[in-house]
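Quick one: co-fold with flavin-adenine dinucleotide.
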Amino acid sequence: MGRSGNHAVVIGASIAGMCAARVLSDFYDRVTVYERDALPSDAANRRAVPQGRHVHLLLARGAKELERHFPGLLDDMVACGVPILQNRPDCIHFGGAGHVLGTSRVLRDEFTAYVPSRPHLEWQIRRKATAIPNVELVSAGVAEPTYDAARQRVSGVRLDAGDDIPADLVVDAAGRGTRLPVWLEQWGFDRPPEGSVDVGISYATHQLRIPDGLIAEKVVVSGASRNQTRGLGMLCYEDGTWGLTTFGVANAEPPHDFAEMCALADEIVPPHIAAAVRKAQPIGDVTFHKFPASRWRRYHKLDRFPAGILPFGDAVASFNPTYGQGMTMTSLQAGHLQRALESPDTDLAREFNAATAKSTYPVWTMNAIGDLVLHGAAGRMPWWYRPVGELFDQFLGAAETDPVLAEWFLRRFSLLDSLYMVPSGKLVARTIGHNMRLLLAEKRAARSRRAHDRDLVPGR
Ligand SMILES: Cc1cc2nc3c(=O)[nH]c(=O)nc-3n(C[C@H](O)[C@H](O)[C@H](O)COP(=O)(O)OP(=O)(O)OC[C@H]3O[C@@H](n4cnc5c(N)ncnc54)[C@H](O)[C@@H]3O)c2cc1C
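Sure, here it is.
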């Protein structure tokens, strides 16, 4: 096998840290994961992961990738009651950019998705990772990596308590708030160039108990649009409760309380779902979270990067959370790490950072187009974003009534077939044909309405 070493250290024991530890355990004699936050022994929210209290969609691709790294994960989740959606389009209500996908028939291709709550998923992954004999999880914060200037490489970490821990490789999975750009500068390297899109998102979430039998759907998504700066996501969890996250984009205020959430549901989801929300029993208080900007630290652009450290997970890119991609993108990075470690002759950081950039680019770009063109976000907008955004709007319009287009979109949104949201020429032609037929049908209907109105006018 490719590269190997004595000791690897991971900073942070959230989803990214656990994925990294799993992969590293195949290549290093020992893997130590340091976590500053208190970790619960069961599936519970924790202080350092405030986003865990809000709806977390595990995309179908993410489930597949996580199962590859943690075999048995999906069965274990289902055994604990995690809902599973198997080729059942009636389990999903999906609205986005002002269009509701027409997925009301059985999908042609295999489509399986799982709906764990975020604390449950994190707990399952942590349980599996820490069961690996050479992985140790230590309750301690990392103050900073230690840097050996003579060898131009990171040589380990210094803990908050002051101990120096030597390591052959350090993986920074400390999340969006990582200080790696600052440390790079201190060691004499450049900071990575950063891409950001000011999405101005505010979340407000309530846990709910909804009486049985009111909704067949297990996943309800109603995204923002040009005319609606607020949206919601609803997921049914393993314990039968529901997470209802409402949000505002482009600095729009989300609902403040349950009554306002019900009023928003009345506006943007089908009546039977809104009625179920009204009949729900709220559990606990509303929790809020602000996500001002999506951020991509482009480490792959740096000419010089120290050996011995890799940035991982949200520490590299944190995506607009309303698209539900972060955990899936992290699980893809675990595959990049595995492949980079398997090839012994390359510059590990260069190869890994390049592979991460390659998978980040299409997803980041499509998000940016949606956010900047359709959702009122602020940020740098190349000229071609607008026409692509408009074309996409047309595509989604056709997907409302064409199930083939709807299925294509659902699979791509789930990052299943490709990370690129680019329809083939055949699908573009199908979209144009479909929209033309709709337009002609509308014109015919308008003509016959006018003729009918004329016939009603007395004396004609
Ligand atoms: C509001 C919101 C909603 C989201 N919704 C979704 C969704 O629907 N679907 C989805 O796939 N993704 C979603 N995401 C993204 C998802 O939460 C992350 O992509 C995922 O958690 C991976 O992040 P991470 O492990 O890199 O970092 P984090 O989850 O932020 O974890 C970082 C960990 O590092 C620890 N740490 C930090 N510094 C140190 C240190 N110095 N020493 C020791 N430990 C340290 C922290 O305590 C923490 O445990 C959402 C994000 C937000 C903000």
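If it helps, The radius of gyration is 24 Å.
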